[in-house]
Amino acid sequence: MLVVYGDSITSGVSGLKPGELGFAPLVADRLSVELVDRSYGGSRINDAEQMGRILTEPIPEGAVVLFLTGFNDMRWRGAHEVKYYRANLYKALEHLASLAPVLVGNCLKMLPAEYANPVHQEFVHGSDADVKVFNSAIAEVVAELRWRGLPLYPVEVTRHFDVFKHVSYDGVHPNPEGHRVLADQFLKWFRSSGGEERSTNERAPFRSERPPTNVKSPSGFAKEQSIALPSIPKALR
Question: In this predicted structure, what is the pLDDT of residue 213?
């Protein structure tokens, strides 16, 4: 089972046509495991409600957590917000990694405002300098918690993501190719840890646990029995 936390980039809004999958469902499909989606648009680590969910929601035994957030925190006040983000990220990842292995992606650089659809210009996700500051904070938190022996694994997505090829018309969210790029970076971890990708004509089960929003959840996922994730080698625990 995969449990995913993130914002609208993770939940796959905008830039995808009906039937096209975001990166999290793509990962679940390739592994033939159930996906539990706890992402929602506008999610911020520096938001008390979101932190409350992370710190109280149970993680099913045997699950792996995919964690990709920080975009909305970065656009809030840019690098001025990072000290609060770092403190809350540490608390969130410390808790999640006490329950399950956590794969942590870093922040992407989105298109600057002059390239974006005007309706989304308020969602400019910061300068290159802001992205670097936030990604440094993510790397530091993951490294500190790994040093304590917690099962956190950094997933480099920034350097593989091309803002002029992988961003949708709105200048903010990944297009289908962008989601495939993100999915491949997370799948690399499963390959390196002995996980097996499976070809299947049936999509993995999907369960959304997002709070009510105006964003429609993905649909059309087969309701079938979950398949357990491959065991994680002891060296990676």
Answer: 36
